[in-house]
Amino acid sequence: MKMEPAVRLPVGPETGHSPAWMRRIGYVLLYVLLSLVALPQILPLIWLLLFSLKNNQEVFDMAPFALPATPRWENYVKVWTEGNISLYFFNSVWITVVSVVFTVLFASLVTFAITRMRWKGRSLVLGLFMVGLMIPVHSTLIPLFSLFLKLNLTDHPLSVILSYIAFNMPITIMILLGFYYALPREVEEAAVMDGCSVNRIFFRIVLPMTASVIATTAIINMIYDWNEFIFVNTFISSDAYKTLTVGVQNFIGQYTTDWGAIGATLMISILPILIAFLVLSERIVEGIAAGSVKG
Amino acid sequence: MDKVMSNRLVAALYVLPALLLLLVLVYIPIVLTGYYGLMQWDGIGAMTFIGLDNYTRLLQDSTFWQSANHTFLLALFSALSLIGYLMIALVLSGKIKGANFFRKIYLIPMLLSSVAIAQLWLKIYHPSNGVLNSFLEAIGFSNPPAWLAEPSLVLYALFVPILWQYAGFYILIYYAALKNIPESLIEAARIDGANPWQIAFRIKLPLITEVIKVTVVLAVVGSLKYFDLIYVMTDGGPNGSSEVMASYMYRQAFRSFDFGYGSAVGFFLLLICLVVTWLLRKATASKDTIQYS
């Protein structure tokens, strides 16, 4: 899904009717505007990075964007070793990985069955998943809590993982759908001729062909699961299973006055996503544009 | 071909795991929310059926309506901010070098967790050491306000990071839609002598009307159920002046342990979301959608 036109014409933002100097001023103004919008998006993060490397005295006495004399990496060492941040971090990692794997696998199975196989009720099932996109999470929270309470799953990571899979399923299927509809049928037809079973067609042929869209859905799911707050906050009460979002929230409560420690904690919690973004930004942009229903 | 690919057993096996999760964890809870709303219930003990008492209480609950007003205000601001995002996307979609770079920068806040954003903005708004008040003092304001402690300011102070968080998302959607318009159409208009304004407002905008409608629904419904930043940053305070519907529901259920009433609020929230979606769809429905082929 490349959005750029194939050929870029050498025309400026203004057409050829106005004189060159006016066009140039127009250009400069446009860039000023775009940068003015970009600054507030990026400056808070730079400020965060800077104060995560300062001690309180430096935070209070220096100008907000001044570099510290020596960056205090010990803030990071301290929050990583002293509190439970490393525990929360690894909880986030494994809960996110498990949820993403199952969401993408289940969603691929459903999308395959709906787009490539023939059975009654396909459109009804697809409809159910698509309507699921519009349901506010908060309206389901109380029954979910009481359901997990009955199943003895509160304060159990399964409650969070199952909720992530269920609630991210519609958006994942939506992103997969377009790709599956565009897959050529010839390959499957040939495979059927050769006597392949459906399982073999799906796991050996179709799934590998969808690798690129799987990567897109995986990264989008990873962002949602890594950042999710309300389910963990509601279902999980013991430190052993808390993820970073909730852990950071509690942890910061204890460190209200230590700006450097808070900054370092926040940096640790956003770093994996920022790194993923640096490496995979095209996929993320594509996934968000394709799944524009979740906001 | 047909025989293999219409194997019902396999289709069922493929669909069931996801479908069961969806039904059990999304659809059944929705129905149960409405049902629990008819009960007096502390979440653990026995339920007592009290009919529509929770719902009549809701209609007369001035605190709820205050939070509903805050929610509607957020929806209004979110919808209005779309105009700005659309303008930026129009600029970006022109022949701008580095459009890709800007688009990615704009998107960064959306990737961060609400908790990280909330904690960061708590620091930005910090009355004495926050970057905002440091800046205001530097340019001559001697006594900048404590943004989040001021009942008259707090709601608007919270709107800023909420809108900040989603700006890149909407810009990206508009940008993608605008880039999808065939270049030949724009070129034809240009040859016919249309100026950039005409191209933007007479050709590009009408062609992405459908996308604009979708974003309006997204922004409004997203605002109606908004919760995260407000919960972390102010918890609805001071004194309810930044409470929204979802945070009020959460407070009733998980703080006051009034699960029956909380469910009624949650069900009402769901109804409002569905009704507003329907109304917006209806209000913006047009018989002749413009298409390019």
How would you describe this structure to a colleague?
- The complex is a heterodimer of chains A (about 300) and B (about 290).
- Chain A is an all-alpha fold and about 300 residues long.
- Chain A has two domains: about 20-50; about 75-290, MetI-like (MetI-like fold, Orthogonal Bundle).
- Helices cover about 70% and strands about 0% of the residues of chain A.
- In chain A, helix 4 runs antiparallel to helix 12 (about 245-255) and helix 8 runs antiparallel to helix 9.
- The model of chain A is unreliable at about 1-15 (pLDDT under 50).
- Chain B has one domain: Orthogonal Bundle (MetI-like fold).
- Helices cover about 70% and strands about 0% of the residues of chain B.
- Chain B has helices at about 1-5, 10-35, 55-60, 60-95, 100-110, 115-125, 130-140, 155-180, 185-190, 195-205, 210-225, 230-235, 245-255, 260-285; strands at about 40, 50.
- In chain B, a hairpin with a 7-residue loop joins strand 1 and strand 2 (about 50).
- Chain B is globular and about 75 Å long.
- The two termini of chain B are about 35 Å apart.
- At the A-B interface, helix 1, helix 4, helix 5, helix 6 and helix 7 of A face helix 1, helix 2, helix 4, helix 5 and helix 6 of B.
